[in-house]
């Protein structure tokens, strides 16, 4: 049974949702977790069921500790930020992101047939089936490129199949967006899987993100048709030399039209390599091709520092400096304690209640901060509390509290008997929560 934790770090109790009582392995009362499907780039992936609707989904569980230790916060945030905005029938959909004290849970569309890699490893595909999958792949990749998103790690392991044997691109952990392009108009980060990486990346020069994705698509098409890699050698440097020179041979069953098409996809010169538009007009590709329809939506990667931008679960567990309130304390306040909770009260009402209680304490001053925040201090400097509120959803907010360690008896009493109980009363209790002892 998967180990699930709530925000206090304890095992989740049973919770009720719309009259349905899930088992102990229910995540935040919403998803009942089943068997592990495999490992993603950052964590384990489980089959799960929406308790309310019965919909099957895949949930990737990412350990906060793993992310911090591996310095992967920016990478994970980028993957979430990009994937949750992509809307295409051949890209795995990210439905929502949930978080507990120790883990992040990405709730995604379930591709029931698993990895394309597992299928092709059992034997090559017919040319018609290769064409069908490649058409779906190019539709998804072309869509990403039109939005300025470059995957940079396309390979059969990152291509899934749904129940209707349709292809789904996943794992945008190494993806890049157009605002990462340097003034020379190119990307420079070295990344990708060796056997699928483009020659210009090996050369350690700047590269066009779209062109390296096309190269990887060419390697994928070759593998689907041949059942093995076009560039392969037990010696990594020898393999890189073959890639750099574009040295490969097609198996004897490959049609002349596909050979010619592969030579354009696997052109070692990115300047002359085929483009997405040219792919769409290629005779081999166009056979039986039906343009895939999808609803285009606005795609913009915004900063999460805007007050009007709702926090997502990733911000709650706070890898960013969104809740860095240290600037409100003096340098001598070296021992600062903090905590955070979710509330269904409005930010204005929370601040109003806190100010109301603070004013009952003689000598305690309240300084209102910009937007939704306040600083409480007094009692001869023995009491300092800073509160900041950020919106999570239309109905929920996150309240962050930082307080200097209290070494004065009257200050401790005020915190314990008045302010702390008030804050506890403001905490949001999920519907159906069964409280333990």
UniProtKB/TrEMBL annotation:
Protein kinase domain sequence ranges: 31-285
Coiled-coil regions, chain positions: none
Signal peptide: none
Keywords: ATP-binding, Kinase, Manganese, Nucleotide-binding, Serine/threonine-protein kinase, Transferase
Residues covered by the NAF domain: 306-330
GO biological processes: signal transduction
GO MF terms held by the record: ATP binding; protein serine kinase activity; protein serine/threonine kinase activity
Organism, as annotated: Nyssa sinensis
Family: Belongs to the protein kinase superfamily. CAMK Ser/Thr protein kinase family. SNF1 subfamily.
E.C. designation(s): 2.7.11.1
Native organism taxonomy: Eukaryota, Viridiplantae, Streptophyta, Embryophyta, Tracheophyta
Residues bound to ATP: 69
UniProt-listed PROSITE patterns: NAF, PROTEIN_KINASE_ATP, PROTEIN_KINASE_DOM, PROTEIN_KINASE_ST
Reaction it catalyzes: L-seryl-[protein] + ATP = O-phospho-L-seryl-[protein] + ADP + H(+); L-threonyl-[protein] + ATP = O-phospho-L-threonyl-[protein] + ADP + H(+)
Protein name from the UniProt record: non-specific serine/threonine protein kinase
Cofactor(s) listed in the protein's UniProt record: Mn(2+)
Top EC category: transferase
